[in-house]
Amino acid sequence: MRTVFSLLFAAALCSVFAGATSRAAERPNVVIILSDDQGWGDLSVHGNTNIATPAVDSLARDGALFERFYVCPVCSPTRAELLTGRYHPRCGVWSTSRGGERLDLDEKTIGDTFKAAGYATGAFGKWHNGTQWPYHPNARGFDEYYGFCSGHWGLYFNPVLEHNGRTVRGRGYITDDLTDHAIAFIEEHKDEPFFCYVPYNTPHSPMQVPEKFFDKFDGRDLKLRHRDPEREDLQMTRAALAMCENIDWNVGRVLKKLDELELADDTIVLYFCDNGPNSYRFNGDMKGRKGSTDEGGVRSPLLVRWPGHIQPGTKVEASAAAIDLLPTLAALADIPVASDKPLDGTSVAGLLTGQSKELPERTIYSHWNGKVSARFGPYRLDHTGKLFDLSSDPGQRNDLSKQQPELVKKLRREVSDWRRDVLGELLREESDDRPFTVGYNRSRPTPLPARDGEPGGGVERSSRAPNCSFFTHWTSPEDAITWDIDVQTPGTYEAVVYYTCPEADLGSTVELSFGGKKASAKVTEAHDPPLVGEALDLVDRNHESYVKDFAPLKLGTIELKSGRGPLVLRATEVPGSHVMDVRGVMLTPVE
């Protein structure tokens, strides 16, 4: 009898687990592909005959295309809104560098939502919402991460990247490499539900792409031009289009892998961009480009495929935005949203599946650098208070504010309320009082790149854009480099500075100090590699640094006490004309 009972119990247990496995299998996988600085007009599905994007276009053919989808004018805010379903100022994201790109720690992400539901989660590409733990993607719901956390990168061929916090060397062209790792993640988790986020960093500058993609555009006349053709840099356009065709090729690789693994029918694939185009080029006659709150700066493609659930060729007319993606994907997967904060976005799942035809009337707001515009139905109130009907005037040429004073009054009042509610004290343009965290996770080293530091004395950045910069012109004991840090776990840390120094300038002694404790070393080995990148650029760089390889200089150990304070790098002896160039400091807990 006991044996029979045991067998029945075992059978019942197997049935329970089989049911759990079956339920897990019914959950759709999710693949989100996000491009960087690609405009609405950089797809052939939107009528651009200068370019061919068959793989991305196929998502619209086999799924849904949103006619009016909105993101932010620049990179990190859009990523924050995707991750949280909330407007970016609520999340502490007000800038694209020097700490202003970080997502507040009390925010839950789309990665948290899907991980809590039992999904394998991975992100592959440009994170741009925080570098140090717990801002790092591995701490924000993503078990697997490969890419870079900065806002832009200075070299796209065999670049230095990271894999789960460990520095690695990428292989080949960066977009191809990121796709390789995303595909490997899909293969590894093919037998369980997975959430794969692929935030590419192209066609963001520097304008570098493999020759096989640029050859098609090299010297070619372009039929479709920017609305003001005299403003267009044709070489920039050619490079951007070549980079977009490379993205399309890689999207095709992802779709092919889903087919090979027989996962296509079980996978939601979503494609969009993070802001308007990064140059003046064809964009459907819309006003504005990257950085602008006008239509051309914030309108993005959104293509969504889920065979058997979304009818091929679906057109979604209702306006939607990046804030809607978290609630929409959670609804499609039938899982709860992890955040306990109210979302600004709403689910548009019903519009995709055909269960509803329209959304309740609402206003969608676009903000950057203190400017706010509002989209309501076919209308946009721009940041100056002018009103445009984009259904008949996509170029925002005819101000209707005098013809429709009541609508203008309503939208101006709503913008004022939004500023007070959403911006309020959370708008940090004047002061971001969040230090950079050190030692939050004792198992992880803490990188402090030049981007997050402040130069003092004669020290300068290698470029105006901080994201991929290094410090140079360090010549005197009066000079200093400072990071505002908050030590989360006190103890002993190994301190390493990443440097370059020519042989003629060897002999300086550098010192790192915090709270009265110090670590120092003399520069005794020359390391003076050339700057690279210029030979690969198809367009001259405007304000971004070229890059070079930096070597580690061990400064020994330093005792760090808990709390906030300045971490200062100085030179106590400078026998030559120059101390060193500095890419950053790494602090590793010593057990």
Describe the protein's architecture and organization.
By secondary structure, the protein is α+β, with helices and mostly antiparallel strands. It has three domains: 20-362, 3-Layer(aba) Sandwich (Alkaline Phosphatase, subunit A), CATH 3.40.720.10; 371-426, no CATH class; 436-589, Sandwich (Jelly Rolls), CATH 2.60.120.260. It has eleven helices and 29 strands. The strands form six sheets. Strands 7-6-5-4-8-1-9-11-2-12 form a ten-stranded mixed beta sheet, with helices on both faces. Strands 18, 20, 23, 25, 26 and 28 form a six-stranded mixed beta sheet that branches. The radius of gyration is 25 Å and the shape is globular.
Arithmetic mean of pLDDT: 94
Helix content: 10-25%
> In CATH terms, what is the fold-level topology of the largest domain?
Alkaline Phosphatase, subunit A
The 3D shape can be described as globular
Supply the helix-strand structural class.
alpha+beta
Number of helices: 11
Tell me what portion of residues adopts beta-strand conformation: 25-35%
Low-confidence stretches: 1-25
CA distance, first residue to last residue: 56 Å
CATH level 4 superfamily of the largest domain: Alkaline Phosphatase, subunit A
Domain module count: 3
At CATH level 2, the architecture of the largest domain is 3-Layer(aba) Sandwich
Radius of gyration: 25 Å
Strand order of the largest sheet: 7-6-5-4-8-1-9-11-2-12
User: What is the strand tally?
Assistant: 29
Major beta sheet, specifics?
10 strands, mixed
Return the CATH class of the largest domain. Answer: Alpha Beta
